[in-house]
Amino acid sequence: MSLILLVExxxxxxxxxxxxxxxxxxxxxxxSAEKALDLLQRHSPDxxxxxxxxxxxxGLSLVRRLKTNPKQATxxxxxxxxxALPRDIEQAKSAGCLEYITKPITxxxxxxLERITRIMLVGQQQxxxxxxxxxxxxxxxxDPTLG
Amino acid sequence: xxxxxxxxxxxLLIGFGIPLVLFLGVALVAWxxxxxxxxxxxxxxxSNTVIIQALEQRQRLDRMHLAILKVPLGQRTTLPGTYQLxxxxxxxxxxxxxxxxxxxxxxxxxLKAIDGLEEQWHQLIQTAFPKGSEKPAKSDLxxxxxxxxxxxxxxxxxxxxxxxxxxxQENELxxxxxxxIADQTRQSTIAIAVAVVLxxxxxxxxxxxxxxxxxxxxxxxxxxxxxxxxxQAPRLSPSGPTEIAQLMVHFNHMAxxxxxxxxxxxxxxxxxxxxxxxxxxxxxxTNAAGEVTGDLPAWRSxxxxxxxxxQGLGWLDAIDPEDRAEAARAWKEAVSQGSDFETEYRLRxxxxxxxxxxxxxxxxxxxxxxxxxxxxxxxxxxxRKEEAALRQAKEAAEATSRAKSxxxxxxxxxxxTPLNAVIGMSKMLSTRLFGPxxxxxxxxxxxxxxxxxxxxxxxxxxxxxxxxxxxxxxxKADSFSLDDAVAGLLSTLRPLAASKGLxxxxxxxxxxxxxxxxxxxxxxxxxxxxxxIKFTAAKGxxxxxxxxxxxxxxxxxxxxxxxxxxxxxxxxxxxxxxAEEHHGAVWEEFRQLTQDSAGHGGxGGxGGxGxxxxxxxxxxxxxxxxxxxxxxPGQGTNVTFVLPRLxxxxxxxxxxxxPADGPARPLALVIEDHPPTHKLLADWLSDAGLGIASAFDxxxxxxxxxxxxPQLIVxxxxxxxxxxxxxxxxxxxxxDTADIPVVIVTIxxxxxxxxxxxxxxxxxxxxxxxxxxGRLQKVLPNLFPRPAxxxxxx
Lengths: 147, 794
Hints:
Largest sheet of chain A: 5 strands, parallel
Number of domains of chain B: 5
Radius of gyration of chain A: 16 Å
Order of helices and strands of chain A: EHEHEHEHEH
Number of strands of chain B: 17
CATH class of chain A: Alpha Beta
Distance between the termini of chain A: 42 Å
Number of helices of chain B: 18
Largest interface: A-B, 34 and 36 residues
Oligomer: heterodimer
Structural class of chain B: alpha/beta
Strand content of chain B: 5-15%
């Protein structure tokens, strides 16, 4: 069963998302970016679903921070935010979010879960490609017969 | 040489010297003539002496004869003593006389002849006086006397004759010399007179000449000076003595300089005058007491007052009564203190309208610091004032609009968050994952979901509307088939129509593509169609008719697709219709048509928000089209819009700049990944008058630097994807971006090895607003349109 890290400061929304996600995934919750970083020390989630407006370190900073860490950079991130302006969406995507879902979520829970699963697959494929690439690169650099 | 002779001194020397020399000549002539005369007088005296002595000699002969005859001859034997004495005198004097006339041989000859005759006479006398004792007989005595007398007589006559001849000769000489003297006297008188007259004449000529040589140029100078005073520009040809010629040259110089200065002054005055005429200035002057005494044409032509009306303080009457007292007070105060005058007032024009004037005056002072007159200008500042008011209004409107957008964005966020729970949890419950639902529970859950979705639609419409109003809604053209787009939308709405028992007909325009914003087109069409469905009762019909047309007005004519420049879309329903008086209100925000139509509450299925038509109209206008409404109560409604096939050019996309006001602001690109710092920097720079573009990693920063060509880049060092040093190196390596000034903002304080040459400033966090802006303004003074306020940014 895949593990999802849910970062959301609004308790009711956190509860809602947790309940939906738990229908299909294992979920660890954090109410702040700092807590999320803390949890990431111990867990290796398959996907991170996070709000962008968080107390303390905000969502964008957290995304950037994760993307600079080689271990965590491959984890697909879905932003779930009540900010619906194109600029917000663009910022989050350029920071490294794979998908941006605006609140409120109007799909029924099962459609929502399907969507999450699809995104997770895309993310895994992408990071897989990336891993393969880096693997090839490291082979290239270590293979004395090449170059 | 010539110059020296021509000098004033030389002329004066000549003028007085020549007469002096002439008078000296005259004196010489006089002296010569006088000495001649004296010589002649000497001669006369000499002749007189000769004549007198000659007469005395003759006398002496007579006295000698008498002395002889005194004693009867023969009685004595010796010669009488008297005779002998006289004879000695006679010889002495005879010698002296000979000496006197020794130059005249004739006279000398005569004197010698006289001496000879006297000797003969003396011999005769001696015979008459025999020596010794022989005494002549008495008888003889008478004979002796007789003989002697006989013999003496002719001799005496000869002697007298000789003397007379001598004296006559001498008299003749004397007469001749007297004549000579008279002649000489006359001649010398004439000579002296002539010399004096000549000398006088020459003196006068020379002196007059000298005087003329001096006075003529002076006269010329005097006349030229008079002309100069009269404003003419006389030119003298230098003449006369050197000193005066030089004076004339200097005078010419002075006259030229003066006329040049005068003409320069005239040009300046002319320029000044035309400058004043050309501008909106009114030039005025008053006397020292602050009263108008002359004519002020500019004031008159503006205010329409007459020359008499503005005299004294009459000009105050043209000032708006509300400003008049203050203007008069300020003016009197300035006049009484002799200080600069500055005030603003409204001035009534000849047409009766009032315009704002800025009035300035300064006292012109005499040498003793007393005020001579006042001079000043009144400048029409109405336009400036109006412009300032407009700008202020515009800025206020922009600020309001910005605040509104920010408020709406925030409100949207704040509403969406709880709405997420409402909708999400309703849907969660509706899955029945947590147990079966009773019918009423299911019904209520559906209602909650619907209400939530309506609320969401409302929020979305409000945001769209706000964006349209703020001009932030960007549109971009893409190409799509008109009929396909309409058909697609109809198919999504057909279930809704079917649920109400409505029929939807499509009357297609025929094949052809639109080149406009497809998403906005769908939004417009969707809004109109859902509205029509909403307000049409069961068994009604909604017809969508599309046509290719020419022109975007209601009278646009249907044409072949190939010639069409626009598309016309009609959404026709058989609904309740709208009364004419409500047609205008249809387009207003929150003026729901449901106000007039019972039974259609806010929860009317398709989520009508009351904003739909208002937003639709904005969108149609945004795409360059027009929309209008035809409806009568009970006869259905026809909403028609016409869109150009090609999306008109849009104003520049300013979405990037956070405060999107005006393209004139220089753009600063902030490349900083830490959002609070990023926001802080953006706020500071925005306050300082810059437009802001943002990038949160090195790659995006590079891309935006290329696309936007900002005037300033604020670069963080610790950036995701590409660090600041690399960004800097790439910026500087590219000629497109190499010239953009870069300031570094970093937490480490570590500087690159090749420190300095490419970086304008280097800031280490934490930052201080005033320090940051102050240093930026120092190194990049051209970038900041106005000084940043010193208040601290929140």
